Amino acid sequence: MPPKRKYDDDYIKLGFTSIEINGEPRPQCVLCATVLANDALKPAKLERHLKTVHPKFCDRSREFFEGKLTNLKKMKLGPSGSSYATSEKTLSASFEVSKLIAKSKKAHTIGESLIKPCMLKVAEELLGAEAQKKIREIPLSNDTVKSRIQKMSTDIEDQVIDKIKNSPYFALQCDESTDVSQCCQLLVFIRYLEDNTMFKEELLFSQELKTTSQGADVMNALSQYMEEHGLMWERLAGICTDGAPAMLGSRSGLAALIKTKNPSAITTHCVIHRQALAAKTLPECFTMALKTAIKVVNFIKKSALNTRLFKQLCSDMNSEHETLLFHTEVRWLSKGNMLSRLYELREEVKIFLINKENKELLDQFCEPEFIIRFAYLVDFFAQINKLNLQLQGSGNLKLQGMSNIFAYGDKIRAFIAKIELWMNKIERKNFSAFDTLNQIIDGQGADIKEEIQKNMMLHLTNLKSEFNRYFPDCEDKSIQKLIRNPFIVNVFEVSDEIQEEVIEMQHDTNLKDTFESGINLEDYWSQKAISFPKLRDIAIRYLTLFSSTYLCEQGFSALLIIKNKHRNRLDATADMCLALSSTEPRIQKLVKSMQSQKSH
Fold first, then answer.
1. pTM confidence score
2. Mean pLDDT over residues 24-37, rounded?
């Protein structure tokens, strides 16, 4: 083995200092921080590097290179002598992986226990030892991932707060629920106009309510947060809640308390909750049919053995599905999905009940009148589920589409009109609107008794009445017309303060062409109507409003994954922020604000 070469102080004239790696001196260029092998400690090799890599510095003095050496020593170098850029990349990679962990709602320990070993194994197979060495330097311990997530969460919050402060209005939706550790969690989402061009929805904050969850408790949490972050109540366009007494109570509810801060704030009851409440109008005969269906499902799924036997039966019969679905009252789509699956597997269910010799359930399930009512329920709840899914919209593209309060109103009014259509058809014994029921009538020649027909009419009459009760046409019609189409509104139907702007807008041909080209309301009023400040202000205020608390429902679903029985002591605030936010953290800014550290 050849002897190790030594560094000579005169090598600084060639632009090289010395760094010790694995017990041997190696030359390091003071200009580019490149580290050469020990056998390069020869004047000829060092001079060749200077002439080929840095030719314009060949004639510089010793003092120049000593100055560069001073600058090099100030840099934060890794033990291999690599520049801070490499360490910066490992820190950036640590943030990126931590972000993916949070967005995937995984435990923080997965970084060190799974992700890093996987990367090392891939590097070993495909990239070699040098890549493995770099991967080992990425900090991904449990505490490190937690710290990264907290920093990114704070950065996202800072960005969102800055944008909210520049928005003319903002709206809130809030709800509370109990997590796996029996803690009451409050979620608050916000909708605002970003950069005066587009509406955006974000998680504003999540917070544990230490004691009760009354309207006053929620209000205290809201007030404290808004004061700490400098958000003005005057800009609150409205708030949407689930309609519980704690939220909409006339005296001590959250809505009433918010009115004390901003009397003009509009409070709304979640349109999806209202729709679910309005749908609970079944007459007794249909309620009994529903209970029978639930009883059949529960009998088959009540034991693991029955479930396996039924699955095998379905497999033997080449059925499309092999399992039934449980009914859960609190789940919006549960009834419809359960009934639809039960109807699809009705022949398999009959055979199973025969095999199990459950004559009572079999007789109920095969009764002609039950089959008629069952088919009607399948069709009815399919329509309810369809409406519910239409209402589960949001302003963010990542959350499936853009909707505003007027779009939700359209869907509800369309459904009420459908109810009237169905009533008209049923009265004439035309059941074409109900596909499943119609197939039974046409295919099996089933006869609809007058009593069942009357119960259908009674059900739909009550349903229409409930929808009208839960969805009164409470919006100012003149304002609604103005926002939806300012070019056809009668100028005498709007207030004196905006009449002249309405006239000016109606006579702006270019603007009218833009509106009629199919631009959505949000883009039109936020981007194209800037020269009409009074009209734009009214429109932005109404378009900012939430119509449902669907984002909160999504948030609670995410919370169940993040804070589960294995992580029941976790403070999920930062993880929730990254998992639910569409705003990206400014990782490079965070990297520059802190020093890199080795994995531990």
1. 0.75
2. 87
